[in-house]
Amino acid sequence: MNETLASARLMAPAISMRGVNLSLGRGAARVHILKDIDLDIGVGEAVGVTGPSGSGKSTALMVMAGLERPDGGRVSVTGQDIGALDEDALARFRGRHVGIVFQSFHLIPTMTAVENVAVPLELAGNRDAFARAAEELAAVGLGGRLTHYPAELSGGEQQRVALARALAPDPAIVLADEPTGNLDEATGRQIVELLFAVRARRRMTLVLVTHDSSLAARCDRVVHLRSGRVELLPAQVAS
Ligand SMILES: Nc1ncnc2c1ncn2[C@@H]1O[C@H](COP(=O)(O)OP(=O)(O)OP(=O)(O)O)[C@@H](O)[C@H]1O
Ligand SMILES: [Mg+2]
After folding, report:
1. Ligand 1 pocket by C-beta < 6 Å: which residues?
2. SS3 of 10, please?
3. How far apart are CA 74 and CA 72, in angstroms?
4. Distance between CA 26 and CA 47 in Å, rounded?
5. What span, in angstroms and rounded, lies between the C-alpha atoms of 134 and 83?
6. Using CA atoms, how far apart are residues 46 and 56, in angstroms rounded to an integer?
7. Nearest ligand 1 atom, CA 56
8. pTM of the prediction?
9. CA-to-CA separations, 188 to 115, 162, 200, in angstroms, rounded
10. pLDDT digits (tens, 9 = 90+) for 115-162
């Protein structure tokens, strides 16, 4: 990469969406989900994404992760136009730069906690994958649960494994979709504290989808979606 391009990337937002449109489904069931989304998320910024059920929050996150390709518009992550990458390059790019946490944990049930964290690291070429995975699990308080299977862990513990898996490659960006949605309030709070503590320590960019307005308010900025569009909040319209 030449120096101009390298410095342009340093200046680039962590995530940039320009004129993003996405429809999913076939025939009469086709739904226009994301409509003309323009959004920049700065490096190190924490952005809460709120909005009614069905407003497109999860879909927007999938587009940022490159797990859904928009029909129109452009998505750049750390300065890379991800639409220009083929599936293999995109998977490698995601593995290096983006960690994802889902509401329903998405752990592999036939793998132990440490395997769930280590296997993606191994696939990414990390030679100390198991040692690294054990460290990450210890950091979320699960050093004593390495060989437990997901079914042998509580919901909060499973989400901590998922968090360790997302954070293990030391991604610049973490995307979290209702990470506390399946947890009771106290357990959810622990996960949130962990997430914000790691974010402060590693200066990651965080995009956090949540129904919880007090949780969203802990972020630097809140983006509200309504029917697939970014809706300006009254305070933003006034300023
Ligand atoms: N594969 C698909 N095919 C057709 N429509 C879809 C598909 N995936 C999502 N949708 C529709 O897109 C809209 C947005 O869905 P999305 O999951 O992004 O909403 P959300 O804001 O995350 O909602 P929630 O708060 O309930 O999680 C919904 O109306 C949903 O039914
Ligand atoms: Mg959702």
Report:
1. 24-25, 31, 33, 51, 53-59
2. helix
3. 7
4. 32
5. 34
6. 19
7. 18
8. 0.91
9. 24, 13, 18
10. 999 999 998 889 999 999 999 999 999 999 999 999 999 999 999 999
